[in-house]
Amino acid sequence: MSVFTKVERNELIAFLDAYTVGDLQHFQGIRAGIENTNYFVNTSGGRWVLTLFETLPVSELPFCLYLMDHLDAHGIPSPAPVADRNEHILSVLKGKPAALVQRLPGRSALTPTIPQCAAMGEMLARLHLVGQSYGRQRPNSRGPQWWQRMAEVLLPYLDAAGQRLLTNELDHQMRLRDAVLPRGIIHGDLFRDNVLFHGDRISGVIDFYYACNDVLLFDLAIAVNDWCATEDGSLDEERTAAAVQSYARERAFVPAEAEAWSSLLRAAALRFWLSRLHDLHFPRPGELTHIKDPDVFRRILEHQIETPARLPPVGW
């Protein structure tokens, strides 16, 4: 959620005239995140988030926006898109596809507690279950084919140890892609800054622009790597158990998922190591940009290779 495209006040007023959200009072660019341009927008009719999509193809945006609406209608607190006067939820601003969505209350827990990790696990399982009734499909644009393309680009920027790590991990992951695991709609990016809390209660799940159809447990692995990892790349046992066990109370695991857990943690670490390396070495210009440390996920990947995690007990 960086600001790559600067929007002036008069441009925003003209854009909002197509909506019934009242008069513009205040707007502010959002620094967090790395993919799209985002602004907080306050009007006389409420509080909103404006997103200008910098890289996503227009053809993929309805999947994300209608998914948010579907989840919100089924009790998952997600930012429902706002339709304009012509009932369109996708518009154009500064030559970029743009959408206005509800701004949800609460704030992210950047140092999550055990109860907050449990709430995250429960919410993610509910999202997966509700997603089963969503009819649209979207492949994972950051899946194995993308990993291989990024590896070709990024290998020259790594030291010898990093090159060996990346090459060996790609070989490992390609051998596992035939595993039969439950699939469905995943969030794809459920980091701490994409969940909002009031105390220990989740008040919002945001940023669905990596949502797609993929392995459900991969989604939990993405979240656990961010919510439960320690400085050295290991997973905090109590926070991990809270997230996994709360998830399993909503959606029971199958035995194959227990066998795949460590490899999916590795796959999730690989995916975000590559994306952060790309952002580091090929940054996009912007007014406010935020590049995150790729070594966080290199350490997680290395630790999982050295000490494979087991799925915490969930009462099989």
UniProtKB/TrEMBL annotation:
EC number per UniProt: 2.7.1.39
The kind of enzyme this is, by top-level EC class, is: transferase
Query: Any idea which GO molecular function terms this record carries?
Result: ATP binding; homoserine kinase activity
Q: Does the keyword Aminoacyl-tRNA synthetase apply?
A: no
- First and last residue of the signal peptide: none
| Keyword Transferase part of the UniProt annotation | yes
Q: Which UniProt keywords apply?
A: Amino-acid biosynthesis, ATP-binding, Kinase, Nucleotide-binding, Threonine biosynthesis, Transferase
Q: Where is the Aminoglycoside phosphotransferase domain?
A: 27-253
Q: In which pathway does it act?
A: Amino-acid biosynthesis; L-threonine biosynthesis; L-threonine from L-aspartate: step 4/5
Q: What catalytic activity does the UniProt entry give for this protein?
A: L-homoserine + ATP = O-phospho-L-homoserine + ADP + H(+)
Q: Which GO terms describe its biological process?
A: threonine biosynthetic process
Tell me any Pfam family this protein matches: APH
NCBIfam families attached to this UniProt entry: PRK05231.1, thrB_alt
Q: What family is this?
A: Belongs to the pseudomonas-type ThrB family.
Name of the molecule in the record: Homoserine kinase
